[in-house]
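Section 5.1 Outputs to date
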Amino acid sequence: MWMGGIVKHLINLAIAAGVYIFTKLYAGIISFNSIDFEGANLVGQILVMTFVIQWIAYIPAFLLKTEKFYDLTGSLTYIGTILFALYASGSFQNLRLGSILVGLAIIIWAIRLGSFLFMRIYKDKKDGRFDSIKTSFSQFFMTWTLQGMWVFICSSAALIAIANPSGVPINIVFIVGLLMFVFGFAIEVIADNQKSAFRSISKNKDSFINEGLWARSRHPNYFGEITLWTGITVMGISTFEGMNYLAIFSPIFSYLLLVYVSGVRLLELRGHKKWGHLKDYQDYQKDTPKLIPRIF
């Protein structure tokens, strides 16, 4: 029995190490022409900062066996690393408006989503996904390490753009990306607010939402998030050269993570378990797109 427990811990720690190594290799490849800050590659410094913040926050979280500030820490990491990138790149000092707008888009998104998720878990008292995870030091550590990868890779296209020696130019491509961000952000906010309003009605406690944007997509909030990260990438893509283009993986990673790992997949399984026997839910599943909202 105890040997099996040790093996599980070793596997979890190995996965955490693999996640860090993969993210570090990715950062090294995409940041070949990024500026240095105090003698070291700026993007590389941000990579280390991102993971260290998660590992420090993990300590009190595990000691208290709580997940209440997990999402909040992720949002604060986005904000902190983007502000550092803007400062270290001279974007504030030299008033590089394009770089500042790219950073500001992420900061606005992180403040909104972080506060939304924190208030949700404060109200619900817990996040059921962590019930078994937070009692295992290695699995919980792996989860915090995965958050470090999520933060860095999702923001990597923006970081590469901000760390470009010339800054981000404001051109037609930038404007298209900005409009994509605004559209995706609006979809995510509206979808989250509609779901919160639906859940606040007592008669809907055990019902699934199929109104508003949720009548056009089963997961409109995730569609909005993927769209806004694509927009952020487009905003900065004019700065890309050579291996920088691999940072296009940023929105692709968001899609893979939200659809196949932590978001859509888990919610679909949970929904099928809870309402799969209902004909209304079966019809909703059949007639409503999983991700991309239907227009008509």
